[in-house]
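Model: You mentioned two targets. I'll fold them one after the other.
Researcher: Yes, keep them separate.
Model: Target one:
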Amino acid sequence: MLRTGISVPSGVGQLEPTPRPRSSVSPQATIFPLNGDSSRRRSLPDAARRIRSPNESSPVPLWHSFQTQTAQFQNKRRELDLPDIGWQRNNTLRILLVDRSDTVRARMAAGLLELILDWNEFGKLVLQERCGVEVAHSDYLPVSTTFGLISQAQNLKVPAKHFIRRTQRFDSSMLQRCDLLVAMDSWVHQYLQDAIDSEFGLEWSPEKQTILGKISLISDFFGWCSDDEVSAQGPAAVLPGWLSHHLGTNLMLVRRSADIMRPDLVSPQGMDEWYDMSTALLLGCASLVQYLMDAFTASAPSDV
């Protein structure tokens, strides 16, 4: 797929994104609407008071609305075979982005995820790590590689810090420490499943089943948002304007692929491969963030 007009900035300094206008309601006290509903948000404490008040006639319809929304979420989650996010068990979620070499894809995904979480005021509720299953030992990337990645990532305002950190090696302790493990491709996904077999044995057990339920491909989340939802503009959109603009209007080819491309930036097709990778990661990260917010909404009734 030929892409043209991709400029590479001469500088390597970090570009700061412009945040959306902030509301006075904190992320912990906010319910986010499902399916791109632009009616925005409701304070959880207000919802709780309405549900618990014996003197109002409105709590029952409100409770039924919560139940309907939760049922819709769970039906869609099961249809797409996505993990059951444990917001009710945790105040924060820890996500592990898993790559092969921890060089490009997981780092770019971490940067995009940070931008999208902050845009949606969810940054303090989701902690993220990244690692590579083929990393022999923790080390810095070569300087030329680091500068090249920073230059390319600046086009989407991804912070440079994600490319100057040491590589991280996957270890089995991450299986239990993290709430969600997101693999960049099918090979990495299979590696994680094999690691679980090595850690817990081949026999079925509740603990092993719980760990297996944490693993997903980033492409598994593609189906959570429609093209219109990820391309929407405005303060209620899941993506800031410069990111939704990057996605373009036709994501059909991106949605067909289960694996995120590993770009070879020194090849003649390097820029095209980078574009394809960044577009797929952006769709995956946007859909993942929307899924996390919808899961937060679905867990809210039993928390209030």
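Model: Target two:
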Amino acid sequence: MNKQNIKLLCFLFVIFSLMGCMNTATRLWNSGPYMSDEKRKIYDICDDETDKFYSEENQRELWYKFWNECLKTKENQ
């Protein structure tokens, strides 16, 4: 085997090794670690409730404050 074939094999090995990590890395980047179904439901409920009162584009700061308060109250129930 020449050097180019060895480099190609090493490259393919690295790519295939990293492909197994991509789902975990993407999930961590987008939404943090895995959430339970209960916590995901709380996030969805608070998101829907907050969207009724505030527009995320125009009132982002108020939207996040209301959303955080909703999460705190729902998680403590």
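Researcher: Noted. Anything on target two?
Model: Residues 3-31 form the longest helix (29 residues).
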